[in-house]
Amino acid sequence: MKVLGIETSCDETGVAIFDTEKNMIVSEQLYSQASKHAEYGGVVPELASRDHLKKIIPLLRLTVAESGLDIDEIDGIAYTAGPGLRGPLLVGASAAKSIALALGKPSVGVHHMEAHLLINLLESPPPSFPFLTLLISGGHCLLIHAKALGRYEIIGQTLDDAVGEAFDKVAKILELGYPGGPKIELLAREGNPEAFNFPRPMTDKDNLDFSFSGLKTAVFYESKKISKASDNQKADIAASFQAAVADTLLWKCQKALRLTGLTELVIGGGVASNKNIREKLINGLTDKKIFFPPIERCTDNGAMIAYAGSFYLGKNKLDNGLEIKPRWPLSELDYG
Ligand code: KG4
Ligand code: ZN
After folding, report:
1. Are residues 268 and 312 in the same domain?
2. Which member of 11, 89, 107, 163 lies 3.0 to 4.6 Å from 324 by CB, making a disulfide possible if both were Cys?
3. How many A from CA of 214 to the centre of ligand 1?
4. CATH code of 205's domain
5. Do 287 and 146 lie in a common domain?
6. How many CB atoms lie within 10 A of CB 61?
7. Does one domain contain both 87 and 50?
8. Phi, psi at residue 313, to the nearest 5°?
9. Do 171 and 86 share a domain, yes or no?
10. Rounded to the nearest whole angstrom, what is the distance from the C-alpha of residue 239 to the centroid of ligand 2?
11. Does residue 12 sit in the same domain as residue 76?
């Protein structure tokens, strides 16, 4: 089966084709709008919708051409139905539905965060259910007991900012630009992670929830104190902030693994591309099996949507209407 996947939930237009017989992505295209939103300091939904509209057809054409397949050979189309921005989601859903209708092939709307999780199953060797999952992106910070395909129990989540959101806000405070995550990671390499003792939020609490807004505020006040921060000081703040996030994530994962008795940890989402966070989790959990997607498949992409769709198209769980779900809790999956 060849599944075409379309991702448009935020500011990346991603298109890919997954071949189930070869168990591989046979072609993919990714366009990031990040530079367009940079001058506004964050994603502008209307701009994002218009840019997806501009890019989706050329990227679809390129992806099909590079696969060497004829469009008729596509067996089904998967698209991100949610969660995400309404306008951008509608662009991807409309494109997917139109192609499905024209080809007389099925389509399926997939859950963006489930796709971030499932892309790990394409690794070799893959994780096997049940496992613990940490999803860290621009909109989410979730600890999930993944019991089986489509059966996810959320056992911890952020009470305020998502991890990626905290990275983006701290980057704004340090005037590094958008998106903040990669910029903080780069600057942090030159800084001392012990220069500032930022809080490790919620690690004193007896639960698996997160909260990053206090940490962001601590960074804000510290950087105000040194209002004319030199580049060195900025690097120290970036490194110390990143260390506080990594320690907090590690601490919560250790606790979740202890409480659930699970032995495998699967990580996904844009923040999972952060090498410092990856290293801290790997070094802190040497007795567990840890799975990360390749760096380029951590941030939003079409490959994860094509791959996630292949599970549900195979089960004939198809959708009929042009339905998108901008808010869609992972615990409420319903592909039936
Ligand atoms: O998964 P993703 O591409 O989109 C959402 O589903 O939200 O994640 C984007 C988020 C942004 O907040 C971005 O700043 C963050 O992931 N991010 C990073 C890194 N690369 C992207 N955060 C920390 N370090 C990175 N290297
Ligand atoms: Zn994402």
Report:
1. no
2. 89
3. 19
4. 3.30.420.40
5. yes
6. 13
7. yes
8. -65, -40
9. no
10. 24
11. yes
Domain of residue 14: give its range. 2-117+297-332
Nearest residue (CA) to ligand 1, atom 18: 181
Tokens 């003792």, residue? Answer: 197
Domain count, the chain: 2
Q: Is the CB of 84 under 6 A from ligand 1?
A: no
Query: β-strand 264-268 against 289-291: which pairing, if any?
Result: parallel
Cis before 179 (ω within 30): yes
Residue 193 near ligand 1, beta carbon < 6 Å: no
Distance from the alpha carbon of residue 237 to the mean position of ligand 2, in angstroms: 26
Residue from 299, 300, 330 whose mutation best tests the ligand 1 pocket (most atoms within 8 A of CB) = 299
Question: What tokens appear for 115 in the block?
Answer: 């796709």
271 ligand 1 Cβ < 6 A = yes
Would you give per-residue pLDDT tens digits along the chain (336 residues)? 999 999 999 999 999 999 999 999 999 999 999 999 999 989 999 999 999 999 999 999 999 999 999 999 999 999 999 999 999 999 999 999 999 999 999 999 999 999 999 999 999 999 999 999 999 999 999 999 999 999 999 999 999 999 999 999 999 999 999 889 999 999 999 999 999 999 999 999 999 999 999 999 999 999 988 766 677 899 999 999 999 999 999 999 999 999 999 999 999 999 999 999 999 999 999 999 999 999 999 999 999 999 999 999 967 565 666 789 999 999 888 665
* Joined tokens for residue 324: 């998108």
What's the pTM value of the predicted model, to 2 decimals? 0.96
